[in-house]
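Sample A.
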Amino acid sequence: MNVGIVCYASVGGSGILATELAKSLADRGHEVHLLSADPPFRLGEYQPGLCFHRVNTPAYPLFREPQYLISLATRIVQVAREFKLDIVHAHYAVPHATAAYLAKQIMLASSDVQRVPRIITTLHGTDITLVGSDRSYSETVAFSIAQSDGVTAVSESLKADTYRTLAVERDITVIPNFLDCKVHRRVYNPALRARYCPPGCEKLVMHVSNFRPVKRARAVVEVFARIAEQVPSRLLLVGDGPDLGDALDTARRLGVHGRVEALGEQDQVLALLSIADLFLLPSEQESFGLAALEAMACEVPVIASRVGGLHEVVEHGVTGFLHVPEDLAGMGESGIRLLRDPEMHRSFAAEGRAAVKDRFCADLVVPMYEQFYEQLVGERTAER
């Protein structure tokens, strides 16, 4: 099958999932064409069956803003025609679902309507709960979703949020995020651990994100400060974004700055997760929680907010602990319990890894997308 995948290149769950799906589909024999403004984060080295197409957006003095939507729609049309795409899979509703709809209308108006691909939109989270709910965008987003040939969401929570937030009545299929479980696993590296957890440091706590406000970076440090009062430990902040400076200022204010290290954006986080003892994710909202899933795959228990789809990933009292976002004291106490009880920690680590293997491995989830594609392509064939 010839598949076009549209995504953002920047760090974030939607781009990571789209890129991993593209790579997995190529591994399974499909021809995959990835469209974005830049090579996506984690695209990696050349892979047979996978081709990247850059979306160039020229700047004209007449336009107040770069016209990415128009240039993306045009690029979709070009790639779809050149490579006879069966599917165009738009990840993140804004503006990708709209661009895919516009591209489809352009192709339907052409003389060769037999080669118009089916349009799938995958909803990831803030494209619905934050951007899509803005009145400046909401009607266009709802229309673009409704006009897609198929729609998926990464969690039951996000599916419910979409129905509640937008005037959408169409079917939405839940297909969760996934990991390559052969790659996402704990790999012991004592030398790396010793670098970040020198003598006097017993435990390593970690947070990975793009440090946007929704991730509550200040809360990460506040929870860690409570843990550090009871357990000699250090905090690694992995990633970059607008709130990283605020997190470091909070560490100074709370007197734990010497125990906090910011590592910036990292293309590969598995080596770092493999040396961690605890993962913090006190987000304001998470429609799935891919970072938590990656931590669990590396046998790292998770302390997180009970919001959105996180309860579909982290099982409270089994693979981690979930608290209401305001309960930073409770998060700290749960972290201390886990780090002080080796038997509990081993159990949570093992259960987390087992949960990922049972439900979220690529060889379980990617076939769900393939089946979804085949169903929609079959419907197009029946319509002719």
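Sample B.
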Amino acid sequence: MAVVVTIAVVRLGVRWYRRRSPRPRKTLGYGWLAGDTALVATREIRERVRARSFKVVTALLLAAVAGAIILPVALKGSGHPQHIGTVGALSGPQRAAIAAAAKAVGTSADFVAEQDRASAEADLRSGRIDLAVIEGQKVMAKKAVTPTETTATARLAYTAAAELGVLRSFAQAGLSPGQVATITSGKPLPVTSVEPPSSRSGPARATSLIGIIIVFIMLSQYETWTLIGVMEEKSSRVVEVLLATVRPMQLLGGKVLGIGTVAMAQAGVLLAFALVLAKVAGSDLLQGSGPLTLAAALVWLLFGYAFYCWVYAAAGSLAERQDQVQTLALPLSLPMVLGYVMAITAASSGHASVFFQVLAYLPPTAPFAMPVLVGLGAVSWWGFLASIGISVLATVAVARVAALVYRRAVLRTGRRVSLREAIGA
């Protein structure tokens, strides 16, 4: 839907521009943003949206986002209380210990009285109960469980067994019920720190991870589309026909604008899908600073594409074969890989090193580093805007150089054009 609206807006803009200036005339400054540029952008949007790869990648990204949101909710085990069969009477401290163990593993305990051990075993086999406590001395499960299992039943079995074991030790030591109650009701000591706690918790870091992965996948996909698209137009001589009617800057600007529009529309669909699904599923990934973190990732997807698209378009004009594209794509992707790896490391550890903070202000790596700093609460609003300003200035400079390279290299066929040759021609 977002792509259809974008195409309609571009077409309306083209019609308005034609009515306003019926006679062809030369344009100065940013005149390439209208007219033929809009037509080229519309053509790119139509081709990319109709491509099978676009539909496949969109479906895969939607599935990945759905899995990242739903799986943690499903693995929590909340909403399904653990049915605990009890053989014999349980004391108040024992029941309280089992209930506390259930709360610690993210579930709740529902006690079911059993007549004897045989009936408890029968209920375990039928699935009526999840665990059984035999005379307060043994915890029994249907199947063998290990301490490394992550299911709610396995974690509750070992946690409850540990708590009940402590209570049995108290009884063997000859402590009275009042003394046992005093010990078990003790509150933990306060934990303090020399620095204030971060306002960004685990869910925010998880949201940062999701955002960074999506930014990396989408930047890699769309920048590669730009590079290959320019190369194919050059090798097939289509660019010669196009440049007979439009200027090089109009053709280049329309291409990066059209592909960028598709990228942002796809990112907007993913963001809306994530917000709605998280709300319906009750996920905590988008609570607190989660929406702000995703918004930062969306903003830096835009600025990241704006910076890299000119670089990849200029590189595509230097090549005319697939093997040359692969040779050019590797060095161009190294800054993105560096930023992505460092961002994943920082988001996973919850700590941003000084080197990583420096990367957040360098245009090639800022699209990956800055959203993580937002998720960790390690950047101020003026630092965020300063990084955007640096990226905008760098993008303008890169666009001017890329336009020069494109204009001089896109019509030169027969061999690969070197960057030095294109700039110094």
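B remarks: The CA atoms of residues 160 and 325 lie 60 Å apart. The radius of gyration is 30 Å.
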